[in-house]
Write a structure and sequence with these properties.
- By secondary structure, the chain is mostly beta strands.
- The protein is built from 1 helix and 7 strands; from the N terminus they run αβββββββ.
- Strands 2-1-5-6 form a 4-stranded antiparallel beta sheet, with no helix packed on it. The chain has a 3-stranded antiparallel beta sheet with strand order 3-4-7, with helices on one face.
- Strand 5 and strand 6 form a beta hairpin.
- The longest helix is centred in the N-terminal third of the chain and has 14 residues.
- The radius of gyration is 18 Å and the shape is elongated.
Length: 107
């Protein structure tokens, strides 16, 4: 059976997913702080978004969670954290892997 889903559709879906995520919000000691997306890696059918908290930010405070936001500030993904930030940089990663399944047939 021929592939129903073409590579072009997969590439468009990955691009669309990637384009919706524009910034992040990190809960630092109960205070929501907005951060830019530090880095994005698109590889095959996966998108990885990174948030970086520098060496001088939030030292000694607890990182309680992180969320990825769209342009309107809507939460698209979030993850809990429980980390006490030291004087080193801290990288938070989100990874999305796209998997599609299609059924084709006549009625």
């Amino acid at each position: 059976m021929a592939d129903v889903i073409k590579q072009l559709l997969l590439e468009k879906l990955i691009s669309n997913l990637n384009g919706h995520i524009v910034r992040a919000r990190v809960n630092i000691g109960g205070v929501q702080t907005t951060y830019p997306i530090y880095n994005t890696i698109v590889s095959g059918m996966s998108v990885r978004k990174y948030i970086y908290i520098t060496e001088t930010q939030a030292i000694g405070k607890q990182l309680l969670g992180a969320a990825l936001l769209d342009a309107e500030g809507n939460i698209l993904a979030d993850q809990p954290l429980l980390v006490t930030k030291n004087d080193k940089g801290f990288l938070i990663a989100f990874e999305f892997v796209l998997r599609l399944e299609a059924n084709a047939g006549g009625v």
